[in-house]
Design brief:
The protein has about 210 residues and is mostly helical. It is globular, with a radius of gyration of 18 Å. The chain starts with a helix and ends with a helix. The model has no long low-confidence stretch (mean pLDDT about 85).
């Protein structure tokens, strides 16, 4: 499994170098996007980065988060799940990708029903902005977890980053809807539909898979 990880890291770092070099402006603004709605809105209107870079950044997020889940399980409770390492890694990737796709699909569906296409696109792009930053962060902390003696410190640091990233997404979601004139009641309904329901479905799928 270590050899697989080393090869994976080399490929991911090569891809990251390509994306960073090709999108220096976007990368320099990526951290500010998390805290500045104005910059995020500007990047949304400019449609940055390009499609290939976006797909690579999405891959970094899916793989980086999945590897982190695998590392955390192996560090704290390697016998808890009883699955081979590669199988656990694949399940984590599918779960994270499924959760992200389901959130966007529900946003698209709600947009069609209530004629909120522009709002839906902005919401989905903000998911991408946050995931891109988190993916790059986990991409660089993952080798530190795997190959250093301070692995537990980097695990807790990554957990903090994941939670902060999710909270930041929720705050941005509420702000987008308030600026669009959406009522608090509808914002609450959208939060349930776009954030809670996907988590429940992924959780049920994981429980069902673990019981087989």
């Amino acid at each position: 499994m270590t050899d697989v990880l080393i090869i994976t890291y080399l490929l991911l770092f090569s891809g990251a170098a390509f994306v960073i070099r090709k999108n220096t402006g976007y990368m320099s603004n990526l951290l500010q996007i998390q805290f500045s709605y104005i910059i995020a809105n500007q990047m949304f209107r400019e449609n940055q980065p390009d499609v290939i870079s976006r797909r690579l950044l999405e891959s970094f997020f899916f793989i980086g988060t999945a590897v982190f889940v695998w590392q955390t399980v192996n560090h704290f409770s390697p016998q808890a799940i009883g699955l081979p390492s590669l199988q656990l890694l694949m399940i984590a990737i599918v779960s994270i990708a499924g959760y992200t796709i389901l959130r966007k699909a529900l946003a698209f569906l709600i947009a069609k029903i209530f004629s909120l296409e522009i709002l839906s696109k902005e919401y989905c792009r903000n998911i991408d902005f946050h995931n891109h930053l988190l993916g790059l962060f986990l991409l660089f902390t993952s080798p530190l977890i795997q190959f250093t003696k301070a692995s537990e410190i980097f695990i807790y640091l990554s957990v903090f980053m994941i939670v902060a990233n999710f909270v930041s997404q929720l705050i941005r979601f509420v702000k987008i809807n308030i600026l669009a004139g959406v009522t608090r009641f509808h914002i609450f309904l959208y939060l349930c539909a776009l954030e809670i329901i996907p988590l429940i479905y992924v959780y049920k799928w994981l429980v069902s898979f673990a019981n087989h």
